[in-house]
Amino acid sequence: MQVMRFPPLIIIMMVSTSCATLKAYPDRATDAGAEIQALDKYLQPDAITKYESANDSDRSGLSKQAWRNEVVNARVRADDLYFNQFQQRLFQEGIGFGLATDWIVLALNAAGTLATAGTVNALSAASTGVVGGKAAFDRSVYLEKTMPALVATMAAKRKEVLVRIREGLTKNIDEYPLPLALSDLESYYDAGTIPGAIIEVANAAGATAKNADAQLESLLIVAPVPPDLQVRRENMADFVKILKPNELDVLAKSLRVRTGDAALEDVLSKISEAQTQRAFDLLAQKIKILYGKEF
Q1: Of the candidates 31, 28, 50, which has an alpha carbon nearest to the alpha carbon of residue 178?
Q2: Which residues have C-beta within 8 Å of that of residue 219, sequence separation ≥ 6?
Q3: Distance of alpha carbon 90 from alpha carbon 99, whole angstroms
Q4: Residue 277 is part of which domain span?
Q5: pLDDT < 70: residue spans in the chain
Q6: Distance CA 86, CA 88 (A)
Q7: Strands (E), the chain
Q8: Which tens digit of pLDDT belongs to each residue from 238-268?
Q9: How far, in Å, CA of 121 to CA of 112, rounded?
Q10: Orientation of helix 8-18 relative to helix 97-114, angle to 10°
Q11: Quick check: is 22 in a domain?
Q12: Which of 27, 61, 74, 222 is most solvent-facing, going by the fewest CB within 10 Å?
């Protein structure tokens, strides 16, 4: 029986060609590089010098405010162009390599089963090398999975800073001088970086946690109840807050509310809803059965 022989290079070329047919970004109608070059005079350090030397009383040249606006608008545009390039590179490096690697590994392994003894070693070595590269890639898969969320955070934060910049440009130079605008432009750039997005996500998570803590504290006590019942409810709430997660889950299940991260909130809600002695005693009975604690 004659066995088919496929040189490894041919296989890789075949697979690589089939993976390069779809582009995530369409071709641009303009040349981004040429546009950035045209903006160069606004990007140079002497733009600040020209601003300082501008004379509003001299009508032969630009006023300080007009020059400020031109510099800021030009730098916003340049930053947008670079950010768009950055997004494209993220997609190409993060997704394209992963797909191509998967297909090359499959092709090399399939070819190894069809090859004669003379080519098995070469194919095996090639497959091992590609798999090794893919293993290194897999270690950063978590970043690829979170990248869409990070990019969305970047875009949102950049818009937030851009609003501040646009509002500043409506003000006179005493209220919004060029150095202050340049500081906002630096924030605009930082908002479009991965570290900046991570910081923004962390800040948002911290704010969410604080709001959740405030809501938990506000759960007790809203409606007026007899003083003795109020004391019992507060004591029960204090006890529930120090339960271990697994103990809290057991209590939540017995009360038929959510478990996990939402358990404490739901159990506290149940305590808050106990507006009568009878309703509270039912809760107290469950806790006594489960933990031997009396209220």
Answers
A1: 50
A2: 265, 268, 269, 271, 272
A3: 14
A4: 222-291
A5: 1-24, 56-61, 93-145, 208-209, 211-224
A6: 5
A7: none
A8: 999 999 999 999 999 989 899 988 889 889 9
A9: 9
A10: 140
A11: yes
A12: 27
